[in-house]
Amino acid sequence: MPTSRIPRPRRYLVCEPRYFDVRYAINPWMRENTDVDLGLARSQWDALIRTYRDHGHSVETVEPQAGLPDMVFAANSALVVEGRVFGSRFHAPERRPEEAAYEVWFKAAGFDVHRPESVCEGEGDLVPVGPYILAGTGFRTTRAAHREVQEFFGVPTIGLQLVDPYFYHLDTALFDLGDANIAYYPDAFSPGSREVLERLFPQAVTATRDDAMAFGLNSVSDGRHIFVAPQADGLIGRLAARGYVPVPVDLSEFHKAGGGIKCCTQEIRA
Description:
Layout: E1 11-14, H1 38-54, E2 58-61, E3 78-81, E4 84-87, H2 97-108, E5 113-114, E6 126-129, E7 132-137, H3 143-153, E8 157-161, E9 174-176, E10 182-184, H4 191-200, E11 205-206, H5 209-213, E12 220-221, E13 225-228, H6 233-241, E14 245-248, H7 252-255, E15 266-267
Parallel strand pairs: 1-2, 4-5, 7-8, 10-11, 13-14
Antiparallel strand pairs: 1-15, 3-4, 6-7, 9-10, 12-13
């Protein structure tokens, strides 16, 4: 019998896709001047926010800024643990103005913001799981940033090497299931990093490449409900078999920029 899972109310920060577009290419999913259906993107994003609220989660919004088409991907703005905010320093020059925009929101909300010295892209590469922070590197966030994160939070920070450019952020290859366990795509990681994950999470849910390419691992969990891309049908079945409740939400228009559900969702862990 699957284990009964217990949800926990979450607090999320998001940014509406008012200016969402694909104007440049900074990951393999992006093609310059790709045709984006902004109306569809907005309706998909609205459905995600409505779904979060329908499941008892609070959602707050940061004002989007013209000229920042990727600002919708709020997860990249910071990592928030126990009310402490570790901000971002983006690899791509095109995204660097987002740093200040999000810092303004956090400060107005009463948070102090630590500005990293090294390239670090928030929850894109930093995933708190149980007693650890899992930290990706290889394409964006640097190993030096992992050291900064550990010193700032005082939480054991486990570096993981990403090796497939399609999974350029950790949150495209792995997500926290909400009960000190993870789901992940093993081949997105170096052999040593795969071994680390196998040792730390022997009960992990593993995904196929098809699941991962469908943005199935760019998911959000409240401990019971998994907000997941409907295209990741194999992963959806495996999650259900473990007692989780998959909640499919289609953000396919955002896949054109290399993002999905988690990319659009910053969790505020106060």
